Amino acid sequence: xPVTLKQLAARAGVHPSTxxxxxxxxxxxxxxxxxxxxxxxxxxxxxxxxxxxxxxxKLRQTFVVAVVIPDVTNxxxxxxxxxxxxxALTRGYNVILCNTDNLxxxxxxxxxxxxxxxxxxxxxxxxxxxxxSVARLRQLRIPxxxxxxxxxxxxAFVGSDDLLGGRLATEHLLSLGHxxxxxxxxxxxxxxALLRRRGYLEALKRAGLEPDPSLIVDGGFTExxxxxxxxxxxxxxxxxxxxxxxxxxxxxxxxxxxxxxxLRIPGDVSIVGYNDVPLVSRLHPPLTTIxxxxxxFGQTSAEILFEQLETxxxxxxxxxxxxxxxxxxxxxxxG
Amino acid sequence: xPVTLKQLAARAGVHPSTxxxxxxxxxxxxxxxxxxxxxxxxxxxxxxxxxxxxxxxKLRQTFVVAVVIPDVTNxxxxxxxxxxxxxALTRGYNVILCNTDNLxxxxxxxxxxxxxxxxxxxxxxxxxxxxxSVARLRQLRIPxxxxxxxxxxxxAFVGSDDLLGGRLATEHLLSLGHxxxxxxxxxxxxxxALLRRRGYLEALKRAGLEPDPSLIVDGGFTExxxxxxxxxxxxxxxxxxxxxxxxxxxxxxxxxxxxxxxLRIPGDVSIVGYNDVPLVSRLHPPLTTIxxxxxxFGQTSAEILFEQLETxxxxxxxxxxxxxxxxxxxxxxxG
DNA sequence: CGGCGTTGCACAAACGTTTGTGTTACCGTG
DNA sequence: CACGGTAACACAAACGTTTGTGCAACGCCG
Lengths: 335, 335
Prior knowledge:
44% helix, 12 helices, alpha/beta, six-stranded parallel beta sheet, homodimer, DNA-binding
């Protein structure tokens, strides 16, 4: 049922190339008005749509980009995707979404598949530090931009100042009078976690405090891992009076175990999260957190990607947004 | 840089078709072991990957499916996407994600684009009742399955029993002793909203109660719209003692205005939501809601879609899951 | 009226695969 | 030694476009 150029040409009594030029509005096309009308009528009648696959083959462009993220189920990444789709749409692009679950293996296999499909570019939100997948992307000469997390500083990147964010969160806690501030750290293989931790350490140092290694506990980005890390902290001889969690979900996990132990927030321990994902403002208590603009991440990274596609040359633009501390009821003066 | 079959063939001193057969492991291929070895070495050396676009053109299959949803930012739809991606991966498929924002125009334009790209199938989670887009899909002969919402009963569909869900929610409220139960209804153009409302009405009728039209207020699926609807309810001469919201976000919106007015939940008014999206269990108070399995929605719909792709014939299978009432602290006996 | 510049198209190659059908050389058999 | 069979490939068409170039026919000018 899908009509082809050749069939149309036969019915219109012209050569396929002529039809092609009218559907593509070739500006240099000189054509008799009646012929054009005949062709246009036929197009309307048959509902002809050029076969995108054939077009892509000929044009060496697929008009598809891919977004690779750890997990759409995480509102941060969902927001990023929205951002890129919104700008991709305006350029006539569609976007393939790939979830990696933070598995290198899965990330790599997605990339091979995307390469085979000849996507025009990829936006990678799942990069780790010195990520081999990023090297692969370069090797394959696939235009790409890193978002939220970076791999190293040579590549196009859009995200926010996680170092500052870590400092903001910690300084807030310090200003409330906390001295034993713990950090629920994420994997140090990802830039965001690394920088937030560094920001935490910097803030402590600026305040003249010696960081206590036992207060920095490697957890992860999930509720489950945040909860486990919190439990380890509570087992300490002298538990912290405040927590800075690497992200909101870890903070929520910590809240849960605190509540189970009958500890009050912020009475007994204050908590600050990171990202300000939906609904954390409605938790019990509402979570103090660091706000970042996920949709703008997506939009900006897409714009940089398309810039590369248009100029045909890789960019190493880095745009970093300022994170913002939003103070809610989960933080207060130490008991 | 991307190698082609022809280039490989030249270097290997064989015909392109021979290479093609070895990469595709053509079972009927008789080949000298040494030739095969030479070719395989060349493939490994050059990192050759068949051009997927050319393959698609020849095979008339793109190995791409699309998921069309209102908004990924909504965890329900994000979950559905995860489900379909998981099974698509096992079949070597990639998936394009499209957001419609519940705009018919945007839905239609996405569909045209997907058709032009010749995607192998689509999973549609944004259908309205008697949706023209669904008709278009049939007309274009694109295999598809509806998920969560249906358009009419002739098409493949996977979702849950929203009628039952609506009854469950309402009966729970009734069993607590509520008599003035309001319903924050969603758009009656979508099956889920329509059925949940019908379930609500049925439960009332079974309890021998006459539904009060002023207690059914058309809101929408967002926090904002839920809030507005709640305000209208509070302006009533005799406000309700309980609310059944069409989804969790609307319920959250209602909670907000209740809190602003100093009304206690569930002391003054009870609330039940729908979907059990992440974090509503951690709200203040934790939200009673109806749980549905979004990831299974996605998985199942993908399986049905692939079934169609394999058999080459449209299916009208309908699989509906049982929703589950999960009782939390937002509901209690009327004050 | 010859030549030239347009106008309005047609031609054909190319994009990179897949696959049904040759075709050659060789081996074994009677 | 002729013949059939098979092993190991080569050939070529096709998938549906795009685009540089070719080429009639026509009108116009000197």
